Amino acid sequence: MTISIIRSALMASAVVLAAGPVLAEDITITVWAGGSNESDSYRLEAIEMAADMLSRESAIAGQELNITVEKKLDFGDWPEFKQAVTLAAEAGTAPNIVVTSHLDIAPWSEAGYIVPVEDYLDLDSWPLNNIYDNLMAVAAFDDVQWGLPQDAESRPFFFWKETMRGIGYSDAEIAALPAKVEAGEYTLENVLADAKKAVEAGLVEEGYGFYPRVSNGPDYAQFYQSFGGELQDPETGKLVLDKTAMEAMYQFFVDAVAAGVTRKNHIGTDWSQWYNEVANGKAAMWHGGTWHYGRYTKTEGNTDFFGTIEFSLIPAGNANGRANTITHPLVYLVTNQETDRAEEIASQLIKIASEPRINSLHAIKSAHLGIAKEQSNIELYANDRWASMATERLLGAANAQPNHVQYGAFSEALWKGLEASWTGIKTPAEAIAEVEAELKATLGDEVIIR
Amino acid sequence: MKRINWLGLGLLAPAFCIVIFFFLAPVILTGFFAFTNMSTSTGVTGGEYVLNQTGLRAIEDKGLPEATLKQLKNAGYRVDAKGLAAMAEQFGENAAAEFAELHGDALFTSRRDMERALKDLRANQIRSTRDRKAAAELFKRSVLNERFATEDEFRAVLIEANINPADHDAIVMQAYSGWVWTKENIELIFTLPSSLRYAMNTLMYVGLTLSFNVLFGLFLAISIFYLPPRTSAIFSTIWFLPRVLPPVLYVLMWKWFTWDTGFIATTLSWVGVAPKNWMLDTSTHAWVVIVLINGFVGASLGMILFSSAIKAIPTSMLHASEVDGASRIQQARYIILPQLRWPILFVTSYQTLSLLTSFEYILLSTDGGPGRATEVWSLAAFHTALNNYGGNLQYGLGAAFAMLLVIIGIIASLTYLRFFNFREMIAKPRIEG
């Protein structure tokens, strides 16, 4: 009895309060981040900080807004995360904000899982007008701004300095490598030759001269570009299979295996083993991502990164290609919800989370690159040797993979061909023939074959 | 007249539900999905109508007339009388008048330009972003990038935009974002060069693993039969381990065994053999490992079944044969094997069907590698439907792969029934008749 009286009194006072000038609004915003671990925690914490800011701004504007942020980061791997998001979206229980690969924008926007942030945000306002234009473009699809870039990265080529010294490079020559790579004077041909020297000199074991990524990923599109390949036709927006470039790229990996500098069964190597080996000089040359800096120095025990490792763009493959690197930014996306209000608040939150100062916390903690120009004026970011060097050396030459609904199928087909050539199941020419047939059948008009 | 036995039906009900929900429903749904173009981008629950640049490009390729295409592309945002009237209503006459003066009759191709134009208002500024976006919408004349829940709504907008009615059907069809019925998946599977390889891989996998299962299971059962009871118990327990170990752990142990830093490589390096990955070095290595991994699991089941069948053979027959001077091999050949006909049939048919659809050990060990050399049909179905780096999972195509497997499974079971003459096996026992 007493309880019910208290409850009635509370309800009555709630009604009175609601009718008053200060409106209280409680909202829960759920954020899920894929492909993240503890060092990427600011992908989620930035939203909490933004929620605090937005609540304060609302209070000043005379509205009480209480935002509870629910965070989830521990998904198994990318496929599991993507399944979780799509299934939740189908069931109508999608998280409000997702942090994911920009490649998801095309299929998820078509499916109606996400809403364009440009419906809610003024793209000319701070801090959005300070984000690099090419990164904003990566978060757009079909001329619609679907999301905001959450971080940037790029994928450098690494040299183990001691091994390079062992095959005759002086310190000055090693320091000059990045510039030579950029100018196209040091190519993948040189990589093979130097890797072979390192193996023959016994500085690294056989198969450890050139030690590439162990699974499919944007990295391999870089090697395609190194041989002059183009991923998307700028005129029509269609995907492009350049057979000559692709075959040359397959051939490069076949040659690397034949020369004994790369293992034939390298694909599928355990990631932990791989990280540990490259961070401690077991491989002469390899490639990775800007975030590897964090992994090598924090987890794998390399205490002298700059003393042991040199980095550059991915070298050109031949005269048709160019030295390049791919940036594969993660993006903040806002999902389709029952109420417009939830989408609006989510959009505001990701806008505030893109503040240079907040984003710098993520960039430095996780060894990613910044998204906004002003970050070079934030001491935390500007004083970080890795962030500033990597931004300067790599980001200018970086391009992204295209946002295209069929890009996934395209990338899988190319990878299948590479796998078959690399492991000696097929010759590069045979693999290309199959890739061509497969792409023609699955993508039809959406792929241009040259 | 027979009375319905409600108790019996009641007891059957749980089994009935399990059969329907866990066996029948997945098969029916697979058949249903197989004839759709369902993928992440179409969603599962249905679609809406939205025309974007990609869609526009696709209908351009299909031959949409140039004039209609231009109309659709260039509509953009227009500061026309209709828009200004709506603006006057929502934001006041003064705002509309000022805007007409600033940008009357202007055409903006992008939303951002339209919003920037609205920011030019001075005397009647629209201060909130939301309001400015709402104002911009009043001038939108393009049908691009807008989602409509129903076909009727979308058609109404096309009429309003003065699009040639002859082109409406093509546009509507392209704009539908959901899945549609199609036979293309099946056709695609038959045209893809990789399908044939997956089929051959499956044949090889089932054939080799099945032979290993049955032959090794038989060998184990017979040899254990001749061992003293205590020793035979130890051996059968050991051989049963692969089946009771969790698959992830079991395969992990195989990995430790075969990696280039694993047991085999390390041991052989002592006698000068260069270390290599004994699981993934060539496709032959991968096949041997896959057959062994699956074979040991399957053989343990065969062993149990065969052992119990052997125990059911009257020992007097074996004793009699011993008196006649038969060797162990002769006993196995002329007494044991003939009596194991039905268990062998059972293991063969059961294992064929389960091997056709099982891929978990392959997924965990080689994941279809090296270079898809061990990609079997069911693994291809899984990879297509649920694993894609770019994020667009192809549910329809994956289901079509799975459906063909279901059909093959049904044909195989019918063939087995006929081939081994099951009817004879389940005939009424004559002794008790």
Q: Care to count the β-strands of chain A?
A: 16
SSE-based structural type of chain A? alpha/beta
Report the total helices of chain B.
Answer: 22
CATH class of the largest domain in chain A: Alpha Beta
Helix content of chain A: 40-55%
Q: Give the N-to-C terminal Cα separation of chain A.
A: 81 Å
Mean pLDDT level of chain A: 89
CATH topology of the largest domain in chain A: D-Maltodextrin-Binding Protein, domain 2
The greatest inter-chain interface is formed by: A-B, 68 and 59 residues
* SSE series of chain B: HHHEHHEHHHHHHHHHHHHHHHHH
Binned, the helix content of chain B reads: 55-70%
| CA(first)-CA(last) distance of chain B | 25 Å
Number of strands of chain B: 2
Query: Going across the major beta sheet of chain B, what is the strand order?
Result: 1-2
Q: Count of helical segments of chain A?
A: 19
Please report which band the strand proportion of chain B falls in: under 5%, 5-15%, 15-25%, 25-35%, 35-45% or over 45%.
Answer: under 5%
Q: What Rg of chain B do the Cα atoms give?
A: 34 Å
Structural summary, described in words:
The complex is a heterodimer of chains A (450) and B (433). With 450 residues, chain A is of the alpha/beta class. Chain A has two domains: 10-152 and 328-399, D-Maltodextrin-Binding Protein, domain 2, CATH 3.40.190; 157-326 and 406-449, D-Maltodextrin-Binding Protein, domain 2. Chain A is built from 19 helices and 16 strands. Chain A has helices spanning 2-19, 42-60, 78-91, 105-111, 133-138, 161-166, 171-182, 188-200, 218-226, 243-258, 271-279, 292-299, 305-308, 340-353, 356-366, 379-382, 385-394, 407-422, 428-443; strands spanning 23-33, 63-72, 97-101, 114-115, 140-141, 144-145, 147-149, 157-160, 210-211, 239-241, 285-287, 309-312, 325-326, 330-335, 398-399, 447-449. In chain A, the strands form five sheets. In chain A, strands 1, 2, 3, 4, 7 and 14 form a six-stranded mixed sheet that branches. A four-stranded mixed sheet of chain A has the order 9-11-8-12. In chain A, α2 packs across α14 and α18 runs antiparallel to α19 (428-443). The radius of gyration of chain A is 25 Å and the shape is globular. Mean pLDDT of chain A is 89; it is low at 1-5 and 12-20. Chain B is an all-alpha fold. Among the domains of chain B are: 76-141; 193-425, Orthogonal Bundle (MetI-like fold). Helix content of chain B is 68%, strand content 1%. Chain B has 22 helices and two strands. The model of chain B has no long low-confidence stretch (mean pLDDT 87). Classes of the chains: A alpha/beta (450), B mainly alpha (433). Chains A and B meet through α3, α4, α18 and α19 of A and α2, α6 and α7 of B.
